[in-house]
Design brief:
With 168 residues, the protein is of the alpha+beta class. The chain has helices spanning 9-20, 28-37, 89-110, 151-167; strands spanning 5-6, 41-43, 46-51, 62-64, 67-68, 71-72, 74-78, 80-81, 114-117, 123-128, 134-140, 143-149. It holds the Pfam family DUF6301.
Length: 168
């Protein structure tokens, strides 16, 4: 049985910045090198998926989105480890507290960003960085996850959002 854990704020920011501060586009080879530099272990069946220190019992804790001629699409990873025991209010409070701390620290780096909700009505905070990389942190209690999208994927998402606004 494992207890609910979150990554310390400083380490979470270091994980995030390893990706956001890198020059984009990022080739698959560069992405695998970043993964390895962070000490993340590839899963044997697919090296796009990896385990982190938060991964439980060999389950994946993140993935590198497939690449194309423009580099990788992005990377996603967890900042919390799911408890194998029953969820309780203490886990939910700990995840809300950690999420708030992560958002506060990321605001110091990148400004206020844009708060919102994801498709499951979970709290989410989004930033578009000067290098056109976008980042979202999401709290799906008690789990906390990060999605980092490449500049071209960010552009596609923005174009889609504009088209949907025009459609409405």
């Amino acid at each position: 049985m494992s207890e609910f854990r979150t990554l310390p704020v400083e380490e979470a920011v270091a994980w995030i910045r390893a990706w956001t501060d890198h020059t984009w586009p990022i080739t698959l080879q560069e992405a695998l090198a970043i993964r390895d530099d962070l000490g993340w272990k590839p899963l044997p069946e697919d090296d796009h998926y990896f385990a982190t220190e938060l991964s439980v019992e060999g389950n994946w804790g993140g993935r590198i989105s497939r690449s194309n001629e423009l580099g990788i699409k992005g990377v996603s990873f967890d900042l919390s480890a799911p408890p194998s025991c029953e969820l309780d209010e203490q886990n939910f409070q700990a995840s809300r507290r950690a999420y708030s701390q992560y958002v506060t620290e990321l605001k110091k780096l990148w400004g206020s960003g844009r708060p919102g909700k994801n498709d499951f009505n979970s709290p989410q905070h989004h930033w578009k960085l000067p290098n056109k990389v976008s980042i979202s942190i999401t709290l799906t209690e008690p789990l906390i996850g990060i999605d980092i999208d490449s500049p071209w994927r960010t552009q596609i998402s923005e174009e889609y959002d504009r088209a949907m606004e025009d459609y409405e």
